[in-house]
Design brief:
5-stranded antiparallel beta sheet; elongated; OB fold (Dihydrolipoamide Acetyltransferase, E2P); 2 domains; about 140 residues
């Protein structure tokens, strides 16, 4: 008998928590759906960004990016922090130019990836502001 009483108590507490969080009733159900769609949309955007970066690594123009600044974006992708880089990009045939770029960085690389260091990049020939850092390319210098 004690187990069913505990289950009833937990169910009641759950309903109270939903009401306090604003998820009670039909409006709360729609709010939950909206939040779920927002999370799914965010996950889809991240997947598309990763797919775009993979394509860029295959077809992009090889160059280098000198890290002039960096900040942690606050997000994590697959337990890897997203870092916003300020890069001075150099590709053959063009003057160096500045780009802001966000990318997830493996935690084991973070000590090596610091301002003043240079990383290999692949740049979109149609839009030089789009790039991907080629972690498997030239070593970080």
């Amino acid at each position: 008998m004690g187990m069913f009483k505990d289950l009833r108590k937990m169910s009641k507490q759950g309903k109270e928590m939903k009401e306090q969080a604003g998820y009670g009733g039909i409006g709360g159900t729609f709010r939950q759906m909206k939040d779920g769609i927002g999370q799914a949309s965010s996950a889809l955007d991240e997947a598309l960004d990763m797919q775009s970066a993979q394509a860029l690594l295959q077809t992009g123009v090889a160059g280098t990016g000198k890290i002039t600044g960096m900040t942690q974006g606050g997000a994590m992708i697959n337990y890897q922090p997203v870092v916003e880089f300020d890069l001075e990009v150099t590709v053959p045939g063009k003057d160096p130019y500045a780009v802001k770029h966000k990318e997830a960085v493996a935690q084991m690389l973070l000590p090596q990836v610091q301002p003043g260091k240079t990383v290999a990049v692949k740049v979109d020939p149609a839009d030089p502001s789009r790039l991907a850092i080629d972690w498997a390319g030239a070593p970080i210098q």
